[in-house]
């Protein structure tokens, strides 16, 4: 079980250039597998360009109370990158004027940002249609000061999207750390208790499943059925939908793939499962991702690889949606993760 | 030529069998795909059956493929191992039930 981020361990993959070297070299450089660019060109999808902006995703910091083995953010308690109130002010200005219908707050554990509640309160006033907070669940049990989060979320009608890798303790704890399963179950029960996730409730509670290893997620609908049955029978927990998300080969998951000698097989599996229909709806075509320090990216994964948008507008303080939408999306071989099988996005499958 | 009869990378080339017999290969893969769709049995149940049979026919490719398939479908390791035991029990049962034939023959030949 790992306890520190790649950064704190001074792992060479903490340097994003080294990750990109791996993703651009090896089996791709040798021609064994096609570059993503060439693959999407075959179906007329290159260059990939944005459609209408729908989701404004803000990463408020990389600090987290967990150190999950697969984390693409390389988040953890030792990460100190936290969005300041000043950058949040720039974000609020955009939120008030954006054409996007969804505001999506992520991290790290977004709740650990000291200005998180202030930011939520201010952003809620903007009256955005769907206001998502991506919560790891355990944060609600991590410290007394977080115990009232379910009521806080309810007050602002926040849509909760929570990670839950499996409905069994063993698989969950192996991926996310010892004790995570029990704390997550307790947090879900508390969310249910205030009305989240109940069949007729407007308080949306969705779960995110991502595989605990070097394999792709199964059918989202079938998995949702299994999760619902098990969580209901064992813990009387209810939720709305399950989003199945593919692990992208970056950061700690890339480190795991290489260390376990699964990297090549995993890349083969992603490329073999390439689905042109998924390319049509990849999330980078309707999302803008903002980093803790205000830089703009095509998605959260490009953010973690420090691949900033290919636009003259690169920072939130200069935000201009029209100029920004007129750009080509930056791609590399990690993008195969979003186009495999039924596709993958922060909202689950796309094909 | 590889010096080993089994190479894990060969599993990826399974589809190539169609190149030397297109009609039969295509028919086989169509059939194969259809078999594992959701039906009266769920795709999950069929994956576990496939895993058990993979062990009984001792196909390393199939074992790799259906262990991975099981993981993708959220099947637990306990379920997988029970499926392997179900296969093993039938296989050993098939051996042992022949003991009756041995007993019959023994009795027939003995005074």
From TrEMBL, chain A:
<keyword id="KW-0949">S-adenosyl-L-methionine</keyword>
<dbReference type="InterPro" id="IPR024521">
    <property type="entry name" value="ArsS-like_C"/>
</dbReference>
<keyword id="KW-0479">Metal-binding</keyword>
<dbReference type="Pfam" id="PF04055">
    <property type="entry name" value="Radical_SAM"/>
</dbReference>
<feature type="domain" description="Arsenosugar biosynthesis radical SAM protein ArsS-like C-terminal">
    <location>
        <begin position="216"/>
        <end position="349"/>
    </location>
</feature>
<dbReference type="InterPro" id="IPR058240">
    <property type="entry name" value="rSAM_sf"/>
</dbReference>
<dbReference type="Pfam" id="PF12345">
    <property type="entry name" value="DUF3641"/>
</dbReference>
<keyword id="KW-0408">Iron</keyword>
<keyword id="KW-0411">Iron-sulfur</keyword>
<dbReference type="InterPro" id="IPR026351">
    <property type="entry name" value="rSAM_ArsS-like"/>
</dbReference>
<protein>
    <submittedName>
        <fullName>Arsenosugar biosynthesis radical SAM protein ArsS</fullName>
    </submittedName>
</protein>
<feature type="domain" description="Radical SAM core">
    <location>
        <begin position="58"/>
        <end position="196"/>
    </location>
</feature>
<dbReference type="InterPro" id="IPR007197">
    <property type="entry name" value="rSAM"/>
</dbReference>
<dbReference type="InterPro" id="IPR013785">
    <property type="entry name" value="Aldolase_TIM"/>
</dbReference>
UniProtKB/TrEMBL annotation, chain B:
<dbReference type="Pfam" id="PF02627">
    <property type="entry name" value="CMD"/>
</dbReference>
<feature type="domain" description="Carboxymuconolactone decarboxylase-like">
    <location>
        <begin position="23"/>
        <end position="101"/>
    </location>
</feature>
<dbReference type="InterPro" id="IPR003779">
    <property type="entry name" value="CMD-like"/>
</dbReference>
<dbReference type="InterPro" id="IPR004675">
    <property type="entry name" value="AhpD_core"/>
</dbReference>
<protein>
    <submittedName>
        <fullName>Carboxymuconolactone decarboxylase family protein</fullName>
    </submittedName>
</protein>
<dbReference type="InterPro" id="IPR029032">
    <property type="entry name" value="AhpD-like"/>
</dbReference>
<dbReference type="InterPro" id="IPR026445">
    <property type="entry name" value="AlkhydPrxdase/COmuclacdeCOase"/>
</dbReference>
């Amino acid at each position: 079980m790992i306890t520190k981020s790649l950064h704190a361990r001074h792992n060479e993959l903490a340097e994003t250039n080294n990750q990109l070297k791996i993703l651009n070299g090896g089996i791709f450089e040798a021609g064994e597998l096609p570059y993503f660019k060439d693959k999407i060109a075959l179906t007329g999808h290159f260059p990939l360009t944005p459609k209408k902006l729908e989701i404004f995703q803000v990463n408020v910091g990389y600090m987290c109370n967990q150190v999950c083995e697969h984390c693409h953010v390389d988040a953890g308690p030792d990460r100190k990158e936290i969005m300041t109130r000043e950058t949040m002010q720039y974000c609020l200005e955009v939120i008030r004027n954006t054409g996007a219908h969804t505001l999506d707050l992520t991290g790290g554990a977004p709740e650990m940002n000291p200005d998180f509640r202030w930011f939520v309160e201010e952003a809620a006033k903007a009256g955005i249609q769907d206001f998502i907070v991506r919560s790891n669940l355990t944060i609600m049990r991590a410290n007394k000061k977080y115990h009232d989060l379910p009521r806080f979320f309810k007050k602002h009608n926040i849509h909760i999207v929570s990670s839950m890798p499996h409905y069994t303790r063993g698989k969950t704890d192996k991926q996310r750390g010892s004790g995570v399963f029990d704390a997550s179950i307790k947090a879900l029960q508390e969310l249910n208790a205030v009305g989240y996730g109940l069949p007729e409730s407007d308080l949306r509670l969705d779960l995110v499943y991502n595989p605990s290893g070097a394999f792709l997620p199964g059918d989202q609908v079938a998995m949702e059925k299994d999760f619902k049955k098990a969580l209901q029978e064992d813990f009387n927990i209810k939720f709305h939908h399950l989003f199945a998300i593919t692990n992208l080969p970056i950061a700690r998951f890339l480190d795991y793939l290489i260390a376990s000698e699964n990297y090549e097989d995993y890349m083969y599996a992603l490329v073999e499962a390439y689905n042109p229909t998924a390319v049509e709806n990849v999330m980078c075509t309707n999302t803008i991702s903002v980093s803790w320090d205000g830089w703009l990216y095509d998605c959260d994964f490009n953010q973690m690889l420090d691949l900033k948008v290919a636009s003259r507008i690169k920072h939130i303080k200069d935000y201009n949606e029209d100029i920004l939408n007129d750009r080509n999306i930056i791609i590399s071989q990690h993008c195969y993760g979003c186009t495999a099988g039924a596709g993958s996005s922060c909202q689950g499958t796309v094909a | 030529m590889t010096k080993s009869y089994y190479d894990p990378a060969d599993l990826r080339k399974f589809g190539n069998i169609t190149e030397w017999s297109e009609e039969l290969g295509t028919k086989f893969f169509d059939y194969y795909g259809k078999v594992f769709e959701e039906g009266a049995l769920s795709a999950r149940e069929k994956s576990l059956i496939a895993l058990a049979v993979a062990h009984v026919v001792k196909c390393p490719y199939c074992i790799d493929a259906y262990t991975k398939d099981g993981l993708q479908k959220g099947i637990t390791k306990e379920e997988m191992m029970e499926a392997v035991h179900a296969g093993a029990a039938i296989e050993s049962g098939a051996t042992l039930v022949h003991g009756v034939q041995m007993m019959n023959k023994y009795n027939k030949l003995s005074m």
